[in-house]
Design a protein that fits this description.
Largest sheet: none
Shape: elongated
Order of helices and strands: HH
Oligomer: single chain
Length: 77
């Protein structure tokens, strides 16, 4: 009796869930191994450019603050 209760879910899992799971797993593995698409690569380069500009702006702001308010770094703590 106990075996009959477990048999139905096991069969359903093996027939429906396991194949779908394997298909989705290997599809995602293939997508990861293909690398970045052209759009993703362009977006990544855009983000790198923006990050570099932001870093330059921060350096400029810190230099201005160092000359106008030398104690500003002590306020961080």
């Amino acid at each position: 009796m106990d075996m009959d209760i477990l048999l139905a879910p096991i069969i359903i899992f093996l027939i429906i869930v396991a194949p779908i799971w394997l298909i989705l797993h290997y599809r995602s593995k293939r997508q990861v191994s293909q690398g970045l698409t052209e759009e993703e690569y362009t977006r990544l380069n855009d983000l790198i450019t923006r990050a570099d500009k932001m870093a330059q702006r921060i350096d400029t702001l810190e230099a201005i603050l160092d000359t106008q308010a030398p104690e500003w770094r002590a306020n961080d703590e």
